[in-house]
Amino acid sequence: MRLLITFTAVLAVVSAQTASNRFPDDFMFGAATSAYQIEGAWNEDGKGESIQDNFFHNHPLFILEQNGDVACDSYHKYKEDVQMLKALNADVYRFSISWPRVLPNGDLDVINQAGIDYYNNLINELLANGIQPLVTMYHWDLPQALQYIGGWPNELLADYFVEYARILFENFGDRVKWWITFNEPHQFVEGYSVPWGAPGQRAPGIGDYLATHTVIKAHARVWHLYDEQYRATQNGSVGITLNMDWPEPETNSTEDAEAAERARQFVMGMFGHPIYSKDGDYPAVVRQQVDANSKAEGRPRSRLPTFTQEEIEYIRGTADFFGMNNYNVTFVTPGLRGHNPSKKRDTAVITSAPESLSWGLRKQLNWVATQYPGYPIIITENGHLNLGGRNDTDRIEYYTEYLGAVLEAIYTDGVPVIGYTAWSLMDNVEWNRGFTVTFGLYEVDTSSPNRTRTPKESAGFMAEVFRTKQLPNQYKQ
Ligand SMILES: *[C@@H]1O[C@H](CO)[C@@H](O)[C@H](O)[C@H]1NC(C)=O
Ligand SMILES: *[C@@H]1O[C@H](CO)[C@@H](O)[C@H](O)[C@H]1NC(C)=O
Ligand SMILES: *[C@@H]1O[C@H](CO)[C@@H](O)[C@H](O)[C@H]1NC(C)=O
Ligand SMILES: *[C@@H]1O[C@H](CO)[C@@H](O)[C@H](O)[C@H]1NC(C)=O
Ligand SMILES: *[C@@H]1O[C@H](CO)[C@@H](O)[C@H](O)[C@H]1NC(C)=O
Question: Which of 8, 215, 362, 395 has the fewest CB atoms below 10 angstroms from its CB?
Fold first, then answer.
């Protein structure tokens, strides 16, 4: 709340200017990465195996060219990473902590001091260079030891996650003021539905819903832990990052409008509604669809578990900000697709291939602000994928358009966006696609053991945007 008041005051001052290409003075700019995608050193200095290590080692056909064993070698090159962020004039660095680097078995039986030292060094290096850490606790690299007991569909995982979070608050909370519990749960619970993503458990429409249920409870417990035991001394903010490729109705028929809204509720609302909405709980349309389909399938219970009233109230309001990822737009119309049963089939929409359209970001920001009023929003990921090349004028165009859409959301629509971290600081292991597609502001030479980083044209462009907090003059909304 405190944040929002600060933001509103800033907004009132700034919006006195009419058309603006300037972001608010205290807007946070930066870049983002995640542990598995950049760190490498997958088994060094006592790190435990993660589900990503295990999955890509055992299923090499599911990843192109290179897995995350070495990645960008950021475990050894973090000081260079910080210098890259400094050259970008970044205010914040969004990175993730690898749970098995800190707790190799996921539990408190072994606390890996070398892992804690690594993140302490990174955090201290950032602060010494005037860059704030924005830390994701879970970016998809569950300790494999916890997958052996079932992973996220097992509700006990919430206990383990709370204990892990406590270790993070105790060790890093004096310096880390921004925490994200989970990155894109909609994406990673898919690992309990499809064979091609870790941990590759095929229980569509069941395992992914059980995982969803645990993740939401785990998030809420970690927020309460912070609120009750750390906020008074550490004074930080805790949120979650939810993603969506904005679903736009294919035509202006009522059916397509309903299909688009249903898709939004199944993707973002599934997690956003219990945590951020006034009423809490799963979105009504999600509850109805899954319950009705489960009944029609002759099941004695819904495939989607139910929160008690007490849980609904405990979970509701457990965030200090909303982390949002957006890349693209999809066009949707009603229809049955996917395995029976599955989340896709429960959603009952046909989705087009994604298209890169900046108005989708603006619409999505407006949707979030309307559904979940009262929360400052940080765009924790947004970026452009291409096949490489340092002269990335296409990426500069992408960022210009999307940042323009953010300005429109802030000034024209009054959406409280307080920060933006570009995906990504550097080219990295893009999950199944390895290094074959690139999102970086910096190029990483994966043919060299040195993993040499070189700025792309877009790095220079973003450094100027971040320094001046404005888009080039030719851009005015
Ligand atoms: C907490 O943070 C706010 C703003 O970030 C600051 O004004 C305040 O002094 C801080 N309080 C403590 C106890 O550090
Ligand atoms: C749909 O929108 C188009 C243009 O925006 C309009 O011409 C058309 O009449 C609309 N159709 C319906 C069914 O509302
Ligand atoms: C976004 O859409 C473009 C096509 O416009 C596509 O090439 C790209 O893969 C999509 N990005 C993501 C992250 O899905
Ligand atoms: C980059 O590409 C653009 C468009 O293809 C071209 O106009 C420009 O000269 C190139 N710049 C460099 C430094 O190669
Ligand atoms: C390795 O990286 C360092 C630091 O970036 C650089 O100075 C050096 O030239 C690189 N060596 C090779 C062989 O690329």
Answer: 8
Handedness of CA 468, 442, 29, 378 (dihedral sign): positive
Residue type, 40: G
The span from the CA of 406 to the CA of 385, in Å, is 19
pTM of the model as a whole = 0.94
Find the range with the poorest average confidence among 21-25, 112-116, 387-391, 438-442.
387-391
Contacts of 400 (CB under 8 A, 6+ apart): 471, 472, 475
Report the percentage of the chain scoring pLDDT > 90. 94
Answer yes or no: 255 catalytic: no
Stretch 454-473: mean pLDDT: 96
**Which tens digit of pLDDT belongs to each residue from 281-308?**
999 999 999 999 999 999 999 999 999 9
Sign for the CA dihedral angle at 226, 232, 234, 238 comes to positive
In 77-141, beta strands by DSSP E = 92-96, 132-138
CA distances from 460 to 149, 396, 434 (A): 47, 10, 25
Q: Is the C-beta atom of 393 inside 6 A of ligand 4?
A: yes
Question: 342-359 burial, b if ≥16 CB within 10 A, otherwise e?
Answer: bbbbbbbbbbeeeebbbe
* pLDDT given at position 388: 77
pLDDT digits (tens, 9 = 90+) for 201-234: 999 999 999 999 999 999 999 999 999 999 999 9
* DSSP-derived 3-state class of residue 258: helix
Closest to 303 (Cα-Cα) out of 286, 279, 280, 284? 286
Residue ID of nearest Cα to ligand 3 atom 7: 385
Report the distance separating Cα 278 and Cα 5, nearest Å.
Answer: 19
Please calculate the CA angle 61-432-244 and round it to the nearest 5 degrees.
150
Instruction: Measure the CA–CA gap between 324 and 378, rounded to whole angstroms.
Output: 6
Average the pLDDT over 257-264 and give the result: 98
Among candidate residues 39, 184, 261, 408, the one labeled active-site is 184
What is the helix (H) or strand (E) element at residue 444, kind and residue range?
A: strand 442-444
Task: Tokens for 134, please give them.
Answer: 């924005």
Q: Residue type at 383?
A: G
Pocket of ligand 3 (CB under 6 A): 327-328, 354-356, 385
Instruction: Give the pair of three-digit tokens for residue 421.
Output: 């971290």
